[in-house]
Fold this sequence. Notes:
Number of domains: 2
Largest sheet: 7 strands, mixed
Number of helices: 9
Radius of gyration: 23 Å
Amino acid sequence: MKLSIVVPVYNEEESIEIFIKEVEEKTKSLPLEKIFYFVNDGSTDKTLKIIKKLAEKRDDIQYISFSRNFGKEAALLAGLEVAVGDFVTIMDVDLQDPPEMLPEMFEKLQEGYDVVGTRRTSRTGEPPIRSFFAKLFYKIINKISKTQIVDGARDYRLMTRQVVDSILKLQESNRFSKGLFSWVGYEVTYLEYENRERSRGQTSWSFWSLLRYSVDGFVNFSELPLNIATFVGILCFFISANCKMKLATLSQAKNI
């Protein structure tokens, strides 16, 4: 049996080799053949050069390289499309997704689950404003959306082949993976862990990029924005019609 490890990377030259070593060390007990699929999302540092060198030496390392930075959602989709094997996991290269959880996640799949996800129980180390808006996002979207998204859920999850195939059938061009993972259903369980600091480098997610990402979530998984737009459109129509009637009345009065 094979396990595909999909790893989106953007300017992560310091983390790649550390990540591979850590994953291999922590997953020795897994009875699975592992294949790494790195997706280079238009990095401007030595990320691609390092991946290429590793791929030349090892058959278990594959890669895709984008012509420019398209964002993590595009990288995730590309990685899932090429990933083969019975099981697929998505991991961040910065080791904020604990590799040592993979054996436990695999055990949960053997119990009958189709997806074993992970969620952070704390946001220690994050800027307070980022943590505040993250919690606010989950509160709002779970009130206005029929698709429930687990607070603190990570993209880090272990999935069976059928789940990945179902996700790939969804043809959204503006994707919000946390919602898509939840929307497809199946038997899902979550493992919890404390937040971890990055092993190397700095995050490429700014406050504004996270804000835009949350807006994608609201638009894709709630009817509220459409309802608001409809209401505003109807309101503008009636206001416009009322103004025209008043202007017509004033015009008639002047003529008299």
